[in-house]
Backbone:
C-alpha cells in the first residue's frame, strides 16, 4: 500500500495518547467568584496597533471586578506602544504603564518586571492582543483558593479566523490545542501548559524562567513541585492569528525551539504519561522520516509484512487524527469546512517538518509575531 494515499501520516505515537485523552476525563469542580482582587500584567514589544483596544476592552471588567489593576510593560518598543497605553485613563481602574529601555531580550523578563509591580496576589497574564470574554476571569479566580492549585487557565479563540485560509487553519489548530489542554487537566497523569493569552496564577509562584516558552516551562516546574494547573473551557480569550506564512512559521519555530527544554522535567513520576507525550511530539518528524524510509526499503526488498504493519499504524493515525479534529470543533462550538480539515492535515505535515528542522538551531530575542493592525 503506497503511503501517499494516507497523506503524510507516520507511525504517529502521540495518537495513542490522544485517543487516551479523548476517551477519559473527570468533571472538574467549579466555584463562585467572591470579589478577589486581580492584577492584569501585559508584556508588550511593538504592540501599538493593538494595546489601546485591549485596554479599552479590559476596562469593561470594572463592573464585575471591583479591585482591578492593569500593568502594561513596554519592553523596549520602537513604535508608539508606550504613548498609546499611557493615553488610556480611567477613574476606577488603576492602569500602570512602565517602559523598559534596556529590555527587548525576551517576554519572561517583561512579565516578571510587571509582576513585581503588581499589588494583588492573583496575577492575570495576557498578551497585548488578548481580549477575555465577559466572565472569563470570574470563572478562573475561584480555582486559586485550592492550596495545590498554582494556576487556572482559559482557552483561546482566533479573532481574525476568516481573513484567509491560514487563519482558518490556525483557528482549527488552536481548537485542537484547547481540547488537548482541557482534557489534560481532567486526568491525573497529564498536565496542561499555561497559555500566555489567559492565565491566572498566584503571585508568589509567578516567577517565569528565561525561556522561549516561559509559560509552558513554568508549568512544568510547578508540576514537578507538586502543584496543579486547571483549564476551564468556559473562560475564553480571543487573539490575532498570523496572517502570513512567514509570520506563522516564525511563531511556531519559537515555540518548537522552546519546547525542547520541557524534556528536562521528568522527575514527577505521577505525570510520566504527559512526559512521554511531550517526548514523542518532539521527535515525531524524525519518526516520520524513519517510517517512510523503512516502508520503501521493505517494499523494495519485498518484506510486505513490515509494510502491512506500517500501513495499519498509518490508518490508525488517520482515524484518531480526524476524531480529534471532530471532537475539538464540537466541544468549542466551531464549524470548519472539509477543505479546512484537509488543508490542515496535509499542509501542517509539511510545515511541521520545516519548523522542526529550524528548531534544532538557536534563535535570539523575542522572535515574536509582529502585529500591524487590530481585528474586532
Residues:
Amino acid at each position: 500500500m503506497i503511503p501517499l494515499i494516507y497523506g503524510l501520516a507516520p507511525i504517529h505515537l502521540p495518537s495513542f495518547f490522544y485517543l487516551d485523552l479523548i476517551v477519559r476525563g473527570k468533571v472538574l469542580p467549579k466555584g463562585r467568584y467572591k470579589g478577589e482582587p486581580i492584577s492584569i500584567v501585559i508584556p508588550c514589544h511593538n504592540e501599538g496597533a493593538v494595546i489601546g483596544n485591549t485596554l479599552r476592552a479590559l476596562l469593561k471588567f470594572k463592573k464585575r471586578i471591583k479591585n482591578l489593576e492593569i500593568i502594561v510593560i513596554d519592553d523596549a518598543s520602537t513604535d508608539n506602544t508606550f504613548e498609546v497605553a499611557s493615553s488610556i485613563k480611567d477613574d476606577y481602574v488603576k492602569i500602570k504603564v512602565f517602559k523598559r529601555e534596556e529590555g527587548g531580550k525576551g517576554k519572561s523578563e517583561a512579565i516578571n518586571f510587571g509582576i513585581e509591580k503588581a499589588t494583588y496576589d492573583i496575577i492575570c497574564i495576557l498578551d497585548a492582543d488578548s481580549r477575555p470574554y465577559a466572565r472569563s476571569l470570574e470563572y478562573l479566580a475561584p480555582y486559586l483558593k485550592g492550596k495545590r492549585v498554582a494556576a487556572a487557565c482559559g482557552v483561546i479563540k482566533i479573532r481574525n479566523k476568516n481573513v484567509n485560509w491560514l487563519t482558518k487553519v490556525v483557528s482549527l489548530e488552536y481548537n485542537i490545542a484547547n481540547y488537548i489542554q482541557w482534557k489534560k487537566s481532567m486526568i491525573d497523569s497529564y498536565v496542561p501548559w499555561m497559555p500566555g493569552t489567559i492565565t491566572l496564577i498566584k503571585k508568589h509562584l509567578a516567577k517565569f524562567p528565561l525561556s522561549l516558552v516561559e509559560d509552558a516551562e513554568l508549568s512544568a516546574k510547578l508540576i514537578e513541585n507538586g502543584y496543579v494547573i486547571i483549564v476551564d473551557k468556559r473562560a475564553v480569550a480571543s487573539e490575532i492569528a498570523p496572517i502570513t506564512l512567514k509570520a506563522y512559521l516564525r511563531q511556531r519555530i519559537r515555540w518548537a525551539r522552546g519546547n525542547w527544554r520541557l524534556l528536562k522535567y521528568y522527575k514527577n513520576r505521577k505525570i510520566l504519561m504527559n512526559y512521554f507525550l511531550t517526548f514523542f511530539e518532539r521527535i515525531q518528524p524524525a519518526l516520520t522520516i524513519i517510517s517512510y524510509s523503512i516502508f520503501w526499503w521493505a517494499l523494495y526488498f519485498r518484506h510486505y509484512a513490515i509494510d502491512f504493519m506500517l500501513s495499519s499504524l498509518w490508518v490508525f493515525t488517520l482515524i484518531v487524527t480526524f476524531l480529534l479534529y471532530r471532537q475539538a470543533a464540537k466541544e468549542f462550538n466551531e464549524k470548519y469546512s472539509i477543505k479546512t480539515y484537509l488543508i490542515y492535515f496535509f499542509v501542517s505535515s509539511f510545515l511541521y517538518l520545516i519548523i522542526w528542522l529550524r528548531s534544532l538551531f538557536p534563535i535570539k530575542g523575542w522572535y515574536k509575531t509582529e502585529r500591524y493592525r487590530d481585528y474586532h
Q: What stands out?
A: The chain has eleven helices and eight strands.
